[in-house]
Design a protein that fits this description.
12 strands, Rossmann fold, 35% helix
Length: 300
């Protein structure tokens, strides 16, 4: 069973702490953590990670004896450094004593090529070495649809920001390959073979149910999730999108037949069915909301 903490809330700061407490990832024993947020663009949440989520997550990690924390990302829309500046990340990082890595400023030796039999990546894909060599990866993602072929962008898709667009000294454009491929959603899942997260926090206080990833039709979904199984977290996220009415692509078929999720199951990245997901709540309102989502999760 994969446990997913489910907190109904409009307060991101308290919601993140409550979800982490419910999920209980244990302590980190001074380990160096790499924090992967969602800074694909500088657009307001759910276009990017909310300041309150970042602050609350870092505080909770330190309470659980995290050592040094490095926050890093590669933006898909615009300059990563500019996105980090516009969203306030650079200022927050200085205040919270976080190291910041702008991944598209890394040198050639700072990328590790990943390739395996059966992959849909023609030349494999390159993942940021600092993330893979940290003691653990923690990621925080948003709840939203993706109009450029991903269909939805939750924890599996958030891993794309760990992959190079171009490795210095090489000519191949990995992101062009990804976004022009008929196998895009399968390739998204395949990126996730490179690592296993220690913790995932999904901010669903607001969600895009259409459009995305930067702008879209927004609803107040009122939820924070925490877990470490990316399939489980994403399956619950898709069920929440369906609950509020979403795109035809995201509504189509059983959730575990969605291409990102189905390929992740094939690759052994987490649970294989909705019956293996346990939604953990701590209050009556969250339990009632979770029961509605679980019904959608189990459909088909």
């Amino acid at each position: 069973m994969a446990k997913v903490a489910f907190v109904k809330t409009q307060d991101r700061a308290s919601g993140v702490r409550a979800a982490i407490e419910l999920f209980d990832p244990g302590t980190f024993g001074g380990q160096h953590l790499f924090l992967k947020p969602n800074y694909n663009s500088a657009d307001p949440t759910p276009g990017s990670t909310h300041e309150e989520v970042l602050r609350s997550l870092v505080g909770a990690l330190r309470e659980r004896q995290a050592g040094p924390i490095t926050v890093g990302d590669r933006s898909g829309m615009g300059s990563t450094r500019s996105v980090m500046q516009e969203t306030g990340l650079l200022e927050i990082a200085q205040e919270l004593d976080l190291d910041v890595l702008v991944l598209d400023e890394l040198d050639q030796e700072d990328w590790i090529k990943q390739q395996f039999e059966g992959s849909h990546w023609k030349h494999g894909f390159a993942v940021a070495r600092p993330a893979l060599e940290a003691d653990g990866i923690v990621q925080t993602c948003c709840l939203k649809t993706h109009r450029y072929g991903g269909h939805f962008t939750l924890s599996l898709k958030n891993s794309v920001g760990l992959v190079a667009k171009r490795v210095p000294g090489e000519g191949h454009d990995y992101m062009r390959e990804l976004h022009t491929s008929l196998h895009q959603r399968l390739m998204i899942a395949e990126i996730n073979t490179a690592y296993q997260p220690r913790l995932i926090v999904l901010d669903g206080v607001e969600a895009f149910v259409n459009g995305g990833p930067a702008k879209g039709q927004k609803v107040d979904a009122g939820v924070i999730l925490a877990g470490k199984d990316r399939i489980a977290v994403d399956a619950v996220g898709v069920a929440i999108l369906r609950h509020f009415g979403t795109t035809r692509a995201v509504r189509k078929g059983p959730i575990f037949q969605q291409a990102q999720i189905a390929r992740a199951v094939e690759l052994g990245l987490g649970v294989g069915s909705p019956s293996e997901i346990e939604l953990v709540t701590g209050d009556d309102e969250s339990a009632a909301y979770a029961a509605q989502i679980r019904e959608i999760l189990l459909e088909g």
